[in-house]
Design goal:
15 strands, alpha/beta
Length: 345
């Protein structure tokens, strides 16, 4: 097995390629030959030590990936519906969350910290913590589903209960935001999206966005989106955090929902509580989702083979640090992916 491993301290300089023997396959587990890993902003925070400065090292980073079942451990044969050797599967981000509501302790079972993640050629996962890949997706496209895709699905479908005719605002043109655009359109909703790039906004319109706002040239974008929606949107996917929440509150309608997902613009802010209280706004934290949520997303995508995740760029395994730097730059639109073939260099 070969991996990129964070060891000896935090920061990109402490990422190094490592070789290791994967050891015996545990009961109830699958050994996957990994094909691709998709990057998330969480991975950067984890590598930098900003997500959890007490995180134990060494760590194989990254939370998203797709692999092919190479071997099955003892007892897997007895599990109903267990994947077969040769099947393509997606390891769930929260390995211990099978279904149902979020409960304490599940954060200790997440890939890419504290558990070793997907930036490696082989990994062992419990057979119950994977889902089948929609057949029409490439490896790079499939690798984007477990975090970004499931998060958008959880926010809009399972928690948000989106309905035809609803209005949605999603911030930026990263992975979660573009998944939200696609999922909302599948459910008959109208979607507004923000960016600082007119070029990215044009691409978002080509993907189906009904309304776009450049937040650089329109600083009061919350007010502009509320006017477009006729008094505020039903759902906001809040991906900025501290720096954007006040504008999201302006954009949402009375009784609407803000799904708090990202921290791209900071983690601490002061918000006008009266704006939440007097308008009955629901602030809903979204912590990705369960294996069942991932299965629901995959089932929905399999039924719509015209829908494909947006992949910005695919880097070879040898250039994983460059892929992370590209993500950090913010120049991407959609997902940044690493192909997990060490023979690429």
């Amino acid at each position: 097995m070969e991996s990129w491993t964070l060891d000896g301290g935090f920061g990109p300089a402490h990422l190094a390629r490592r070789h290791a023997d994967p050891g015996p396959l545990a009961p109830g587990c699958l050994r996957l030959r990994m094909r691709a890993a998709s990057l998330n902003f969480r991975d950067i925070l984890m590598i930098d030590g900003a997500y959890d400065p007490r995180l134990r090292l060494p760590l194989v980073p990254c939370s998203d990936g797709v692999g092919v079942v190479e071997a099955r451990g003892p007892g897997v044969d007895a599990l109903p519906g267990a994947p077969a050797v040769g099947d393509r599967v997606l390891p769930a981000f929260v390995q211990g969350w099978a279904a149902g509501p979020l409960v304490p302790g599940l954060g200790r079972t997440t890939l890419g910290g504290p558990r070793d993640g997907t930036l490696r050629t082989h990994m062992d996962v419990p057979a119950h913590a994977v889902t089948a890949v929609p057949a029409h997706l490439s490896d790079a496209e499939a690798a984007t589903l477990p975090c970004a895709g499931v998060t958008a699905w959880q926010a809009l479908v399972r928690l948000g209960r989106i309905r035809p005719g609803d209005t949605v605002l999603t911030l930026g043109t990263g992975g979660v935001s573009l998944f939200a655009l696609q999922i909302a359109k599948l459910h008959g909703a109208r979607v507004a999206i923000t960016s600082s790039s007119d070029e990215k906004l044009a691409a978002a319109r080509a993907l189906g966005a009904d309304h776009t706002v450049n937040y650089t040239t329109t600083p009061q974008w919350g007010k502009a989106v509320a006017a477009w929606a006729g008094g505020g949107v039903d759902h906001v996917l809040e991906l900025g955090g501290a720096g954007t929440l006040a504008q999201s509150l302006r954009a949402v309608r009375t009784g609407g929902t803000i799904s708090v997902i990202g921290v791209l613009a900071g983690v601490k802010t002061e918000i006008p509580i009266t704006s939440v209280l007097m308008r009955g706004v629901r602030l809903q934290g979204v912590f990705v989702g369960s294996v069942a949520d991932q299965q629901a997303l995959c089932t929905a995508l399999a039924a719509h083979p015209d829908q494909r995740p947006v992949v910005d760029r695919i880097f070879p395994f040898a250039e994983a640090p460059a892929a992370l730097a590209h993500l950090r730059s913010g120049a991407h639109m959609g997902k940044v992916v690493v192909a997990l073939d060490p023979d690429d260099g």
